[in-house]
Design brief:
Layout (H helix, E strand, L loop, with lengths): L1 E6 L2 E6 L10 H16 L5 E6 L3 E3 L18 H18 L4 E5 L2 E3 L1 H7 L3 E5 L3 E3 L13 H9 L1 H10 L3 E2 H6 L5 E3 L4 H13 L3 H14 L4 H16 L2 H11 L10
Parallel strand pairs: 2-3, 3-5, 4-6, 5-7, 6-8, 7-10
Antiparallel strand pairs: 1-2, 8-9
The structure holds ligand LHQ.
Length: 259
């Protein structure tokens, strides 16, 4: 359900249930989580590239698995979030390595919000982001209520969530929700080039940068200045910093080791 390959420091995680627009069943949840866990555990992984096969990126939860007509007890969706979605969301945000998401087609429900939890999101021009939850009586989950409100502010966050209006990639980029909308046929080339270049970067420093920027919204300026001091001290002790400065002085390209 998830294709996993590691090459040149990039761990590629490709959601692979194209007949169901890569919607989540339990197996895909566990496979995706294992992928991010591997990214955290292995030094050889220096960037992650998340995408999907087929014409969609991810349509959120597989609703076929939730058919109320089949009877049985009412499922506890809070438990579904605790067991399946939230650990993956936390892993993505806590992973101190860049996570690039290439949204190759429609991203709906939790599928949209997993994309928004990634560090750099590129989307095919034809892709759309849909907060589909309100269509089925649910609330935005998988971190969506948090990221939409933070990134867009209440007016746009509420309108998207209440109406489930599809947001085209271009508008998502114009609103600052994602990094870029790119031509459909250029998406994977651009996303891979970006992932490769980040994987060849000073991973320790990039990881600290991610931590710092994620902390900014809930820190005071004073707390953030202290954090910059502490993390710069740590970055300054890295071999990659010494290499970066040496390479600059020698007018050559730096060869970062990620430490
Ligand atoms: C699907 C799905 C899908 C199964 C397309 N499931 N088959 C939920 C519950 C539990 C716990 C906590 O969290 C959550 C979080 C959530 O994610 S809730 C939101 C769930 N997702 C949705 O409500 C989106 C449902 N899908 C759609 O609205 C449409 O499929 C979109 C707008 C994504 C794409 O529309 P189209 O491009 O017109 O494609 P399609 O609808 O024809 O879908 C293609 C196939 O994929 C189709 O199967 P079929 O056998 O007829 O070809 C769909 O049934 C299947 N599919 N999404 N979530």
């Amino acid at each position: 359900t998830v294709l996993v390959t590691l090459a040149d420091g990039v761990l590629r995680l490709t959601l692979n249930r194209p007949d169901k627009l890569n919607s989540f069943n339990e197996e895909m949840h566990m496979a995706l989580r294992a992928g991010f866990q591997r990214a955290q555990d292995e030094d050889a992984v220096r960037a992650v590239l998340l995408t999907g096969t087929g014409r969609g990126f991810c349509a959120g939860q597989d609703l076929g698995d939730r058919d109320p007509r089949k009877g049985g007890p009412v499922p506890d969706l809070g438990q579904t979030l605790d067991r399946f979605y939230n650990p993956t969301l936390r892993l993505i945000r806590a992973l101190e390595k860049p996570v690039i998401c290439a949204v190759n087609g429609v991203a709906a429900g939790a599928g949209a919000n997993i994309a928004l939890a990634c560090d750099i999101v590129l989307a095919a021009r034809s892709a759309k982001f849909i907060q589909a939850f309100s269509k089925i009586g649910l609330i935005p989950d998988a971190g969506g209520s948090w990221s939409l409100a933070r990134i867009l502010g209440e007016p746009r966050a509420k309108a998207l969530a209440l109406t489930a209006a599809p947001l085209p990639a271009e508008t998502a980029a114009a609103w600052g929700l994602i990094w870029q909308a790119v031509d459909d046929d250029a998406l994977m080339t651009e996303a891979e080039a970006l992932a490769l270049s980040l994987a060849a970067g000073p991973t320790l420093g990039l990881g600290l940068t991610k931590r710092l920027i994620q902390a900014a919204a809930s820190n005071s300026l004073d707390a953030q200045l202290d954090m910059e001091r502490d993390l710069q001290q740590e970055a300054g002790r890295s071999a990659d910093y010494a290499e970066g400065v040496t390479a600059f002085l020698e007018k050559r390209k730096a060869e970062f080791k990620g430490k």
